[in-house]
Design brief:
The structure is a single chain. This protein is an alpha+beta fold. It has 2 domains: 3-88, Winged helix-like DNA-binding domain superfamily/Winged helix DNA-binding domain (Arc Repressor Mutant, subunit A), CATH 1.10.10; 89-329, 2-Layer Sandwich (Alpha-Beta Plaits). The protein has 12 helices and 12 strands. It has helices at residues 3-23, 30-39, 46-58, 74-81, 85-88, 91-102, 126-139, 175-182, 218-224, 230-236, 253-265, 300-307; strands spanning 62-64, 70-72, 113-122, 146-150, 165-171, 188-198, 201-210, 239-249, 270-274, 290-296, 313-322, 327-328. The protein has a 5-stranded antiparallel β-sheet with strand order 11-3-5-4-12. Strands 7-6-8-10-9 form a 5-stranded antiparallel β-sheet. It is globular, with a radius of gyration of 21 Å.
């Protein structure tokens, strides 16, 4: 075995340990990390994990949290984001699946955890941002009105709000997948894309990115490239909105429709289209026996804010929070 091969294996283990720490909100010890590593196909013992943790500590990528174990640092998160592309393919869908599992919202009680997107803006732009959000949410496409504002210095499980900035949490449309799953309906988030709008109705997807084949969240890609036309869609009825598609079994449609109707009534998300078994939905292909459900992305609200000239940094599918922390705009 060459030195290059050994270094590559060590690097992959270091990245996987960082990933495990990133996925856990609480400090985690070497024994549990070793168990998770073995589950993911990395044969390593507790002693080996401690050796790798020392390397990560020395690089400032992890830090000890008392006797509870290690946590990932901001430098560690940055390192993880910049990891080998081949090692990161599938990272987005893995993260989505974890957050779907962590969703606990109960449609009957209106309580539980939901998934949010987190956007960061300058404090001075807060009032104008609220104006744009109200315009899009109440004059547009039934995007969820539930948001949460976060002051500078606020630390969530994945980001910290910098000095002079404010955080805006918006309801992530992937919450619907967690709700479907909790109601016994298997769900597979498949695409993120740009949906063409004509006369206030969706016509077709202009662009599609498969979740399990990308290293970057599709919504973040489209927003960074300024490919949306949310304000045009709201003001004129024609534009481009962010949307995603998930597949559910065709046999689950009767029960799914009840859940989806309740989700719409609660204004958690807005559904663009429900397909038919095995048939494409808005030009997006769907597997045999499955039905595609297209939902407008919660990130559309902040995409509109960016279109209005305000600098925005958005982290789609950010984390889960208790629904009680959100307030209706």
């Amino acid at each position: 075995m060459t030195t290059t091969t050994i270094e590559s294996q060590v690097q992959r283990k270091l990245i996987e340990i960082l990933r495990i720490l990133y996925e856990n909100n609480d400090p985690i010890g070497a024994r549990l990390i070793a168990d998770k590593m073995n589950e993911r196909g990395y044969p390593i013992g507790e002693r080996g994990v401690r050796y790798h943790l020392r390397i990560l500590d020395e690089r400032g990528l992890t830090k000890r949290h008392g006797y509870d174990g290690r946590v990932i640092t901001e430098s560690g998160i940055k390192e993880l984001n910049e990891a080998l592309v081949g090692d990161r393919v599938g990272f987005i869908i893995t993260r989505i699946e974890k957050l779907i599992y962590d969703t606990t919202f109960d449609l009957r009680t209106g309580e539980g955890r939901v998934i949010i997107n987190t956007s960061i803006i300058d404090k001075n732009d807060f009032d104008k941002t609220m104006e744009v959000l109200r315009h899009v949410i109440y004059d547009g496409y039934s995007i969820s009105p539930y948001i949460k504002s976060m002051e500078e210095g606020t630390i969530t499980s994945d980001i910290r709000i910098p000095e002079g900035k404010m955080g805006i949490a918006t309801m992530c449309s992937i919450t619907i997948d967690g709700i479907l799953l909790k109601n016994g309906i298997p769900v597979n988030p498949k695409y993120g894309g740009l949906l063409d709008i004509k006369e206030r109705k969706p016509t077709h997807f202009d662009e599609l990115i498969v979740y399990n084949g990308t290293t970057i969240d599709p919504m973040r890609i489209f927003m960074s490239k300024r490919m949306t036309r949310v304000l045009d869609a709201v003001d004129t009825g024609s534009g481009r909105l962010l949307a995603n598609l998930r597949e559910i079994p065709g046999s689950a449609i009767p029960e799914a429709e009840k859940v989806l109707e309740a989700v719409m009534d609660a204004r958690l998300v807005s559904i663009a289209e429900i397909g038919r078994p095995g048939k494409s939905v808005l030009d997006a292909p769907v597997d045999t026996g499955k039905v595609g459900v297209v939902v407008y992305a919660g990130t559309n609200a902040m995409a509109a804010v960016e279109e209005s000239g305000i600098d925005v940094v958005t982290y789609p599918i950010s984390t889960v929070v208790d629904f009680g922390e959100l307030r209706k705009l």
